[in-house]
UniProtKB/TrEMBL annotation:
InterPro entries: Homeodomain-like_sf (IPR009057), HTH-type_Tx_Regulator (IPR050624), HTH_TetR (IPR001647), MftR_C (IPR041347). It comes from Ktedonobacter racemifer DSM 44963. This is Transcriptional regulator, TetR family. Coiled coil: none annotated. The keyword Nuclease does not apply. Keywords: DNA-binding.
């Protein structure tokens, strides 16, 4: 599991380490149960039983089954936002976004097994598919604001909003293709292909 971004100069407290370990344990158990039993047939009690805790304790870490299911994606999106804010290149909006979204693709590859399981679960329940897409797109406003703040002198908000939407769409399509292939290919290369296609089209427009 991908941990949430934090200030690396500050050591993580024992309490925080225990919390993150518990969250990761719940996520892993829940994803396995969702795949084995089906999302709708898995109860919070089932998840709590596997990790040997009460449902009440479960709710200290997650608000719902949906919250557990989407946590891996939310964690990666948070890492992408941190990268854009602090590590992405600043020579142009395209350079910053390309580096950020390739970073996101690499993070997905590092969590290949979790995201393949997540994809299989989501595809079993139509209502989850729309929630998944919405959760992916929900990060766009934060990415827009981070990019605008980082490159304020050279950009405008309308341009940034449009570019972030394009890069997010490219990531979403690349992810779908990668997961449909059982995550066997190189996600970064797939994403680069879509971004290169967009770049070529924009230059010929």
């Amino acid at each position: 599991m991908v941990s949430s971004p934090r200030d690396e100069s500050q050591p993580m407290s024992l309490r925080e380490r225990k919390k993150r370990l518990a969250q990761a344990t719940i996520e892993e158990a829940a994803l396995q149960l969702f795949q084995q039993k089906g999302y709708e047939r898995t109860s919070i009690q089932d998840i709590a039983d596997v990790v040997m805790m009460s449902p009440r304790t479960f709710f200290r870490y997650f608000a719902s089954k949906e919250d557990v299911l989407l946590e891996p994606m939310r964690a990666i999106q948070s890492e992408g936002l941190r990268f854009l804010q602090h590590a992405a290149p600043t020579e142009s909006p395209h350079a910053a976004l390309r580096a950020t979204f390739e970073y996101l693709a690499r993070l997905h590859q590092q969590q290949r097994a979790s995201f393949l399981t997540l994809y299989h679960v989501v595809m079993q329940v139509p209502s989850l598919a729309s929630i998944y897409v919405y959760a992916l797109m929900k990060t766009e406003p934060s990415l827009c604001e981070a990019l605008y703040s980082r490159l304020k002198a050279a950009t405008n908000r309308q341009e940034i909003r449009f570019l972030v939407a394009i890069y997010m769409a490219a990531l979403r399509v690349a992810l779908e293709e990668w997961l449909e292939q059982e995550a066997q290919g190189d996600l970064v290369s797939l994403l680069r292909g879509y971004l290169d296609d967009f770049s070529s089209l924009s230059h010929h427009a």
